[in-house]
Amino acid sequence: MIEINCDLGEGISDEELIYPWIDAASIACGGHYGDEKSILKSMELALKYDVKIGIHPSYPDLENFGRKSLNIPIDELIKSLKIQLDLFLKVAHPLHVKLDHLKFHGALYNDAAKDKNLAEELVSFVHSQLPQIPILVPPFSEMQRAAENSKHPIRLEVFADRTYTDDLKLLDRSQPNSLLTTLPEVENHISPILNQGQLISNSGKKFSIQADTLCIHGDNPGILSFLPKLRQKFWSKLS
What we know:
CATH architecture: Alpha-Beta Barrel
Distance between the termini: 7 Å
Largest sheet: 7 strands, parallel
Number of helices: 7
Strand order of the largest sheet: 4-3-2-1-9-6-5
Pfam families: LamB_YcsF
CATH topology: TIM Barrel
Structural class: alpha/beta
Protein name: Lactam utilization protein LamB
GO biological process, one term: carbohydrate metabolic process
Organism: Algoriphagus sanaruensis
Strand content: 15-25%
Radius of gyration: 17 Å
InterPro entries: Glyco_hydro/deAcase_b/a-brl, LamB/YcsF/PxpA-like
CATH superfamily: Glycoside hydrolase/deacetylase
Mean pLDDT: 96
Number of strands: 9
Number of domains: 1
């Protein structure tokens, strides 16, 4: 069954209301948002609602919420990712959290999807630190290729609330309709994914696609208006 994952621990006010409707949470760990207190709160909520817990590292960029590409040396980036990982594990250990996955955030996720060298560096880092933990990666991306070449476990992720271009990249957030925020928008996007294994781009092109997990952003302003309804409509059929 395709899971629903959500990026959380990012300072939204109604986070607890999201957990009952998702399978997995990717929790921010200080790169783009978060500190020990926020990580602990999100982990406790995930445990309360029996939601799988993943780590959600980012470019070290609190100012731009990790959504701006940073041209920083790879050793500086890896150093920051290690700090984020250590912070996450420091909080997780006393709670006996079983780490489910790792997912890179925002601009780092998008950059690594198309940059072969960056993808290989990130996969190498994760493989050295968490060799058994799956990385969430976009289908047909450099991250998928790098992970498969390293024989590192992956889960293929498609965004339920983002529009895709004809090259299967996410439509830039500066463009209209890049983020889907209403029930009809998200339902029209995920219905062919769930029912036909097809992703439809912003120009209407259809692509055969495999997805293990669908992501909905925790800071999507419409999430609580559409997520419960979609969960009940589509996932009750799949269970």
